[in-house]
Amino acid sequence: MKVYILLLFLVTHFTFANDVVWSKTGHRVIGEVAQQHLTKKAAKAIADILDGQTLAEVSTFGDEIKADSTYREFSAWHYVNYPADKKYGDEPPSKDGDLMIGIEKCIEIVKDESRSKADRAFYLKMLAHLIGDLHQPMHVGRLVDKGGNDIQLQWFNRGSNLHRVWDSNMIDDYDMSYTELASNLPMLSKAEKSSIVKGDIYDWVEESQDLANEVYDSVEMGDKLYYRYSYDWWDTVEIQLEKGGLRLAKVLNGLF
Ligand code: ADE
Ligand code: ZN
Ligand code: ZN
């Protein structure tokens, strides 16, 4: 019995410990911002496909299916790693797929009206999730350290790593609901918003990779992080959430 409990602990601990994801809150903020920037036409089409669910509600779907082995083929879609001195696409893509391949596939299926509603709903939920992941800089990090997962750190005296600090530690410790966070994001002018949505996913992935490089420079292995780190980086977290939301809306408005 004791051995069984120990095994159960080890399995669940290591399964969940490695499975860090842009926190549910982060994804929902991005979904909420996007929802507020949809055209009427897109909002209606999306509500039809999702049976009335909102983008915030479905934004965490991509992570919720990760534990189910039926969906294993999608697990490499959450991130992309490529050398910092190259552009995405300079090298052959990963055979398991990656974030950009995932986003392209979702777009292709969502806009195809001959596909079943169930298929379009599945890939729309994935798309809302993956555009979020594209804006978590550590999802466009380095292969050697698995997007910062191998850069061990202490977060308020508890074990963490650079990937997890950016996925969830900062956002979860800020301790606001997704609606509170979405309504407290910096107010942007029309001109600022239109500058953010310029370009396409291939421009945005380069921007995220540049940010990832700054984030890598922000710590050394083994650092003990406290409030100072959040003070220094919180504005960036908010900007990423806002960009993710505005850009998700742009992509969706273009599909419907
Ligand atoms: N999660 C698991 N492996 C990863 C990687 N190589 N880059 C980013 N996130 C990851
Ligand atoms: Zn992650
Ligand atoms: Zn994800």
TrEMBL record:
Keywords: Disulfide bond, Endonuclease, Glycoprotein, Hydrolase, Metal-binding, Nuclease. Pfam families: S1-P1_nuclease (PF02265). The lineage of its organism: unclassified sequences, metagenomes, ecological metagenomes. Transmembrane segments: none annotated. One of its GO terms (biological process) is DNA catabolic process. GO terms for molecular function: endonuclease activity; hydrolase activity, acting on ester bonds; metal ion binding; nucleic acid binding. PANTHER family: ENDONUCLEASE 4. It comes from marine sediment metagenome. This is S1/P1 Nuclease. The keyword Metal-binding applies. The keyword DNA-binding does not apply. Signal peptide: none annotated.
